[in-house]
Amino acid sequence: MSWCWFGWLCLVGYCWLLLDKSVARAGEAHQTAHLLAQELDERGRLPVLVIDEAHLLTDHELESLRMLTNSDMDATSTFALILAGQPTLRRRLKMAVLSALDQRVATRYTITGMSAPETTKYVETHLAWAGRTDRLFSDDALTVIHQSSRGYPRAVNNLAVAAMIAAYTAGKTIIDQSSAETAIIENTE
C-alpha cells in the first residue's frame, strides 16, 4: 500500500480515537500499532507522533499511549513518540500510576529560561520581524519583563504585549518600566 497524505490523516485519526476514553480498546491500539509498523516497513522511515500540550492529557490517555508503545513487547520501536508539555508533565510521569510510561522515556529535555541579554535580543528580534527598527522598550522595562518572566519565551511574549498595551493606553511612545510593571500586575491578577 502506498502512503499519501490521506493515509497520514487516517493514522492521526486512529491515534486520536485511541486516546478517546470511550473508544480506547485493544483492537484500535493494535490497528494503530499495525499502521505505524506498516509505515516503517514500507518506507523505511520511523513515524514520529508528536503530542503538544501533553501535560493536559489524562492518566488514561497517557496509559493508552504506553499501550501503543507496547506493540512488539519492547523488541523494536515502530514509531517515536514526542510528548511536549509544561513541567507538570515530568512530575506526573514520576507518579506510580504512570511509571510504566516513564520507564519508556529515552530522552528528556527541559527548556530553560533565557538570560537577560537573550531576552532583550528575543524581544528586539520579534519587533524587527514586525517591522520596528527603532528602540521601543527601555532597558528598565526589558529588565523587569525578564525578571518577572524568568526568561521563558511565552511569558516574555505575554508581558511584552501587555506592556505595549499599557504604554499605548497611557499615551506613551516608549514602553518604560511603569508600563512593564502594569503589565505584570495585570497578568498576575
Count of alpha and pi helical runs: 9
CA(first)-CA(last) distance: 55 Å
Main sheet summary: 2 strands, parallel
Low-confidence stretches: 1-14
Shape: elongated
Based on helices, strands and strand pairing, what is the structural class?
Answer: mainly alpha
Instruction: Tell me the radius of gyration.
Output: 23 Å
What would your notes on this structure say?
- With 189 residues, this protein is mainly α.
- It contains nine helices and two strands.
- It has helices at residues 5-19, 26-43, 59-69, 87-93, 99-102, 116-129, 139-149, 153-169, 177-188; strands at 48-51, 80-83.
- Strands 1-2 form a two-stranded parallel sheet.
- The longest helix is centred in the first third of the chain and has 18 residues, at 26-43.
- The chain is elongated, with a radius of gyration of 23 Å.
Short recap of the structure:
This protein is mainly alpha-helical and about 190 residues long. It has helices at about 5-20, 25-45, 60-70, 85-95, 100, 115-130, 140-150, 155-170, 175-189, and strands at about 50, 80-85. Strand 1, helix 3 and strand 2 (about 80-85) form a beta-alpha-beta unit.
